[in-house]
Amino acid sequence: MSGLGWVEAIVVGALQGVAELFPVSSLGHSILLPAVLGGSWAKDLDVGAPESPYLAFVVGLHVATAIALIVFFRRDWLRIIRGLVTSIARREVVTPDQRLAWLLVLATIPVGIAGLTLEHLFRTVFSRPVPTAIFLVLNGFVLLAGERLTARSARREAAAVAAPAGGPGEQTVALPVVDDVVVDRRLSRLGVGRAVLVGAAQIAALLPGISRSGSAMVTGLSLGLPRADAARFSFLLATPVILAAGVLKLGDLAGPLGDGIRPQILVGSILSGVGAYLSVRFLTRYFENKSLRPFGIYCIAAGVACLIWFAVR
Asked: Is the pTM value of this prediction over 0.90?
């Protein structure tokens, strides 16, 4: 059985924390990086192997990432959970927090079912370097397409309000920065059908190279959400999904797969949690007025570069 080195644990732990929330696919990077480096990295970090210690390591990273999201959105989750509890107790769905709580619950159901039934199949069939690189390129084009939708919507909005004269450029008209409670009130009016559609978009992330947050964001943008609102909704949706993915497989971490590598798991998880916290803090501000375009370009360039590397190596 292969092991897991300290350098591998540190690098992958830090990478997971960042890539899980950036729209660039953490799973894709966890497959492509070892394949590019080769040697012991490719052997030790084989996510497609059914009995690899790497699976136990990934469980720890997922739990740490989810905890970081809960800590960052702790006030929001307390308010949302309070809304869910009062909704059940009073048998009503009238306040924004109650509506948003149920939207998050309903939107999580499709990806939860898909994860339970398809995760193993998708991981063992598609978790190979070449398919992953192809999906990463596709992810890049999806992000660019989502940004074009946002730009078109912004131009129509600008024309409707008779914006001051000037070159159209590449900037997107952004909503004023407001309190998170106000944003959540807007999200609570999203509607069940549209919320479930955004949540279901996360199913695409079962394919390595496709980003969970990117898929949800682009779907939200296509439904008319402002970029900052789409990003916030995708991060809120990601929290229970990532946490469930880790908790449901804690047996791998506590069982034989975790033997001999638990110190590496702890260090990698700490780095993953810190990276996730810093990432979500950065991204919530970034998406107030910045574009998905750089991430789309990166995914296309990285995917193509990997395909070339695999072809000539």
From this structure: no
